[in-house]
């Protein structure tokens, strides 16, 4: 088996990928960075990710950054974990939609609430449309899936969306809607999530 390495800092978005790796259940090595001490800007790490941020994984000669890209890659690289519908499955489309809706719409609208501008961009220019629309679509998707976005199957899309919803509500940047609260409870009950959280706490 190819060596799997996670470049990780806690707290950061890389905790999402640690959770993903715990769901997959394969051995992996963690290389810790202290972003506050500037580890992300050191030449050795910038040679791995010029953006100077985590997460990054190395696997089988591939170097991948960005949460949704890493999660998509890992779900396909380890199909035995059943974290993604296979190519050809009609659920693959909605799965990919949620995978990339997370960073391109939901996370952006949360950041808009965290760091409000004097004037919001027009709806036609903002990739997420409006904050309320994005939150309503997320709410409806969670409500319709039950227990997970694709129904009974938990997928990497639930890791990407779930981590974002949990983060957004934890910091009061998303409304505490009932569907969000129930979804977070289901996420926090997963053994892999609990293992990843305990490892980060340690």
Strand runs, count: 4
Assembly type of the shown chains? single chain
Helix residue percentage: 40-55%
CATH fold title of the largest domain: Glutathione S-transferase Yfyf (Class Pi), Chain A, domain 2
Overall residue-averaged pLDDT value: 94
Rg from Cα: 17 Å
Order of strands across the main sheet: 2-1-3-4
Distance between the termini: 27 Å
Overall tally of domains: 2
Q: Per the principal axes of the C-alpha atoms, what is the gross shape?
A: globular
Report on the biggest sheet.
4 strands, mixed
Classify the beta-strand content into a percent band: 5-15%
The second-level CATH architecture of the largest domain is Up-down Bundle
- Secondary-structure element order, N to C: EHEHEEHHHHHH
Instruction: Give the class from helix and strand content and strand pairing.
Output: alpha+beta
Determine the number of helices (DSSP H or I, runs of at least 4 residues). Answer: 8
């Amino acid at each position: 088996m190819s060596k799997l390495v996670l470049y990780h800092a806690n707290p950061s978005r890389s905790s999402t990928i640690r959770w993903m790796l715990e769901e997959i259940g394969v051995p992996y090595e963690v290389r810790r960075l202290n972003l506050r001490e500037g580890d992300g800007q050191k030449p050795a790490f910038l040679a791995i990710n010029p953006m100077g941020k985590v997460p990054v994984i190395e696997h089988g000669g591939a170097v991948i950054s960005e949460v949704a890209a890493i999660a998509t890659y890992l779900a396909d690289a380890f199909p035995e974990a059943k974290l993604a519908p296979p190519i050809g499955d009609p659920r693959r489309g909605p799965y990919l939609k949620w995978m990339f809706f997370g960073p391109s719409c939901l996370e952006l609208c949360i950041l808009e609430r965290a760091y409000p501008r004097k004037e919001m961009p027009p709806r036609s220019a903002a990739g997420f449309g409006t904050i309320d629309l994005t939150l309503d679509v997320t709410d409806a998707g969670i409500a319709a899936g039950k227990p997970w976005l694709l129904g009974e199957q938990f997928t990497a899309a639930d890791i990407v969306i779930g981590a974002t919803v949990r983060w957004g509500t934890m910091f009061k940047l998303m409304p505490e809607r009932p569907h969000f609260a129930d979804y977070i409870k289901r996420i926090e009950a997963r053994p892999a999530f609990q293992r990843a959280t305990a490892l980060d706490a340690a």
